[in-house]
Amino acid sequence: MHSTRTAVLAMLVALLLPAPAVLAETAPPDRSKTAGPISAELAKKCRALAISRLISIVVLLLLGLAVQATAETCPERVVRIVNPYPPGGSVDVMARILAQNLTDNLGQQVIVENRSIST
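Now predict its structure.
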């Protein structure tokens, strides 16, 4: 989950920083030597670039929210650990310790069911 957030942030930074070719095309090296405002075609390119970046940012933000929303709903029900041995044994004790740690970490109830199977 954390790596997903990092990847989304890296993509946002890459989108926000202009590409070197676009910078060279949009801004002349020395503005004092140019006689007038930038051409209409160049202004149109800049506007299109800004709109496409804005759309990309919005899509990435929505994607990040969707990933986080799906990650928070798992698990939806009580988690059960089935212990095939009778209660009170070493396997039961370890399963209960594991269940307690999982409950603390997941924030979801984890219970141990002892189902001894007789042959």
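Residues 79-114 form one domain.
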